[in-house]
From TrEMBL:
Name by which UniProt lists this protein: Large ribosomal subunit protein uL30
Organism: Flavobacterium stagni
Cross-referenced PANTHER family: LARGE RIBOSOMAL SUBUNIT PROTEIN UL30M, MITOCHONDRIAL RIBOSOMAL PROTEIN L30
Organism placement in taxonomy: Bacteria, Pseudomonadati, Bacteroidota, Flavobacteriia, Flavobacteriales
Gene designation: rpmD
InterPro entries (UniProt xref): Ribo_uL30_ferredoxin-like_sf (IPR036919), Ribosomal_uL30_bac-type (IPR005996), Ribosomal_uL30_ferredoxin-like (IPR016082)
Superkingdom of the source species: Bacteria
Amino acid sequence: MAKLLVKQVRSQINCPQSQKRGLVALGLRRIGQVVEHESNPAILGMINKVKHLVSVEEVK
């Protein structure tokens, strides 16, 4: 499976609690932090929930 680099680019302040929990579930705590995940439906769903707060890049 492909790997994804997920970087938080916007603040979670003033976001709904479900989106804050999504960032925590992805392992993101601060702006500029980058985490690597396997591409699977669960991770893609979490990314879709907070797509306006993160940038995603596929690693081969």
